[in-house]
Specification:
161 residues, 8-stranded mixed sheet, two-stranded antiparallel ribbon
């Protein structure tokens, strides 16, 4: 299958496992959202650029924010990440990673713009693969929302290959 859903419970190490797994792979692009010193960041897998996404002082920022639960994220960081993902798709990587599809994306925010373009492309494409991390309790909802037809569900990085 061209789409791989990497699903585990919340705070179970999905991103950490993928960070370690990516170190041993070739032609992998996309974005990961690691926690660095207690704050969410975005990592461009290809360039290794890391940039802030989580705003820890929403009251005193002048930037537009996207809120989910108790967290506030810079909307501009999502815009930049969406561009990274769409550009990566055009370079035909062996694996494109999107960390993650969740509540924001189900609400048309976050990585939604990239996902709505990328998922149909990989759902019918014969080469290259797409990996999306999804929290276990949102997996079925994400599959339905994005109308995924051809996917494989995995819970361990060893099952990706």
């Amino acid at each position: 299958m061209s789409i791989i859903l990497f699903s585990r419970p919340i705070h179970s190490g999905k991103t950490t496992a993928l960070l370690q797994w990516c170190d041993h792979q070739k032609n992998v692009q996309g974005i990961l959202m690691p926690d660095v010193n207690g704050r969410r960041k975005i990592l461009d897998i290809r360039t290794k650029e890391i940039f802030d996404i989580q705003c820890t002082d929403p009251v005193n920022t002048r930037e537009t924010l996207t809120a989910v639960g108790k967290f506030h994220f810079y909307t501009s960081a999502f815009e930049k990440a969406n561009l990274i993902l769409i550009n990566a798709m055009q370079h035909d990587p062996a694996l494109l990673i999107i960390d993650e599809a969740g509540k924001l994306e189900l609400d048309g925010k976050g990585f939604y713009n990239a996902l709505e373009r990328i998922i149909p492309f990989y759902d019918r494409k014969g080469r290259g693969r797409l990996l999306i991390t999804v929290r276990d309790y949102l997996c079925e909802e994400v599959i339905r929302f994005f109308n995924m037809q051809h996917y494989t569900l995995v819970h361990e990085t060893g099952d990706i290959d």
